[in-house]
């Protein structure tokens, strides 16, 4: 199989053109087509000669992601099943709101973390996505936003399938392609990477002084409860995460977002709210309280609206910035925690 051109560096591409007796600036032209104009075929590269395009076709491929399925929710949310070059499927979601247009993208095929409330956690992790496969999701969801709403994407969240920090290098490279002036040129402040909590990789984000936002899927602020729903907590305790987040903040000065899904009769009491309040004091932060979206594999239920209101009021009274995130796309299994490739019978 010929090499995927999006997997070689710009300096390697310069060398390729030199060996072909072509000027070095051809590499810049090709890179611009790939990362700024999102070309998925060499025929689109119209400022290259036919001979050069034929040489590229002979030696390289562009393993673009394609849209296999698309479902639209009654609230305007669009969930897409994206097919990768090797036949694997992932899901991505366009979440429209009055003040923003958000793409939720996947970073792995499946997931290895087995969080008990998340449909993806019941899938096997097949492989990591490469940077171009993450980039392609953004490009295609942006296209959907423009077609359906006449507005471009404003925000990107790495909250789809997989744990981004277990695909660290590829996730950071994809952010580079999305934010670079030689790429899509989005502001890193419009990007949030969400983690279930890998302490040493959170510290690495600090060492790399990333500019994007970090969100921690917390869901319980005591170890006993968090161990029950998120086995990763057994090796990445709340104390270890607190220390890692403090290190991250010290290096980046980026506020942390704590994501907290409220489950009925599990983590919805004022005692739970107090524990969360104490945890938020570790770093400058805000809390997103998220409605739970039931899945077939688990028995958790959504908290009562009254409990949710009391919980958020308790935090707000103590100076915590709280956003209550109502679920979007529930009717098409596109809401938070519902992404999983379901086998569909052949037509």
Q: How would you classify the quaternary structure?
A: single chain
Based on CA inertia axes, which overall geometry fits? elongated
Tell me the total number of β-strands: 14
Order of helices and strands: EHHHEEEEEEEHEHEHEHHEHEHE
Average pLDDT metric: 91
Unreliable segments of 5+ consecutive residues: 334-339, 343-347
Helix coverage percent of residues?
25-40%
Q: What is the CA-atom radius of gyration, in angstroms? A: 21 Å
CA(first)-CA(last) distance: 31 Å
Which range does the strand content fall in?
A: 15-25%
What does the largest sheet look like?
10 strands, mixed
What is the helix tally? Answer: 10
Strand order of the largest sheet: 3-4-5-6-9-10-11-12-13-14
- Helix/strand class: alpha/beta
Give an account of the 3D structure.
This protein is of the alpha/beta class and 347 residues long. The chain has ten helices and 14 strands. It has a ten-stranded mixed sheet with strand order 3-4-5-6-9-10-11-12-13-14, with helices on one face. The longest helix is centred in the middle third of the chain and has 19 residues. It starts with a strand and ends in a 22-residue tail after the last strand. The C terminus is likely disordered.
């Amino acid at each position: 199989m010929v090499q995927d051109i999006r997997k070689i560096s710009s300096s390697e591409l310069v060398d390729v053109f030199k060996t072909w007796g072509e000027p070095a600036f051809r590499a810049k032209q090709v890179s611009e087509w790939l990362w700024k104009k999102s070309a998925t075929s060499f025929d689109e590269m119209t400022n290259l000669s036919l001979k050069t395009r034929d040489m590229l076709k002979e030696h390289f491929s562009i393993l673009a992601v394609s849209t296999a399925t698309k479902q639209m929710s009654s609230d305007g949310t669009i969930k897409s099943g994206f097919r990768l070059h090797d036949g694997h499927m992932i899901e991505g979601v366009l979440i429209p709101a009055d003040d923003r247009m958000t793409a939720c993208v996947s970073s792995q095929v499946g997931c290895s973390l087995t969080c008990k409330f998340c449909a993806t956690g019941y899938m096997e992790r097949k492989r990591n996505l490469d940077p171009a496969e993450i980039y392609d999701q953004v490009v295609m969801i942006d296209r959907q936003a423009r077609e359906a709403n006449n507005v471009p994407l404003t925000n990107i969240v790495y909250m789809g399938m997989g744990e981004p920090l277990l695909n660290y290098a590829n996730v950071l490279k994809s952010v580079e392609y999305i934010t670079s002036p030689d790429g899509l040129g989005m502001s890193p402040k419009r990007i949030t990477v969400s983690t279930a909590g890998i302490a040493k990789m959170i510290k690495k984000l600090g060492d790399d002084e990333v500019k994007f936002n970090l969100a921690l899927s917390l869901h319980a602020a005591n170890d006993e409860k968090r161990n029950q729903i998120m086995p990763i907590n057994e090796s990445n305790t709340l104390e270890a995460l607190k220390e890692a987040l403090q290190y991250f903040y010290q290096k980046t000065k980026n506020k942390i977002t704590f994501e907290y899904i409220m489950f009925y009769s599990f983590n919805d009491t004022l005692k739970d709210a107090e524990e969360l309040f104490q945890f938020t004091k570790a770093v400058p932060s805000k809390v997103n309280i998220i409605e739970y979206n039931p899945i077939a594999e688990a028995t958790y239920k959504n908290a009562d609206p009254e409990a949710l209101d009391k919980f958020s009021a308790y935090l707000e009274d103590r100076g915590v910035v709280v956003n209550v995130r109502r679920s979007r796309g529930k009717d098409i299994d596109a809401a938070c925690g519902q992404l999983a490739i379901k086998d569909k019978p052949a037509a």
